[in-house]
Amino acid sequence: MNIYVIVTRGMGGSHDEAVFSSRSLAQQYLSQRDSQGDPNIVDIEVRGNIEEPNKVFTASWYERASDIHHFDGVYGSFEGAKKAAGEKGLVLGRVLDERIG
Known about the structure:
A hairpin with a 2-residue loop joins strand 1 and strand 2 (13-20). With 101 residues, the chain is α+β, with helices and mostly antiparallel strands. Helix content is 18%, strand content 48%. The protein has one domain (2-95). 26% of the residues are buried. The protein contains 2 helices and 6 strands, in the order ββαβββαβ.
């Protein structure tokens, strides 16, 4: 399954901001958003099986030298995301289309 992730670059790293089921919803979110950074819509495949309906987990790995996180990908399970993020990485549970409305 592919989803659309708002990935924002800033301060030397990249982070996920929201996840959407369609590009049009992601574009709608961007048009309403008022925050810092350089946002992009990324079409990305969810890795692994989605264990909870409409919920995915994003993983970001930690770069110790710069003390920042970098977005890695989207996973169907917490365990898959945690493995990708590593010991000091960041895992966030995200509900599809939650930021619209």
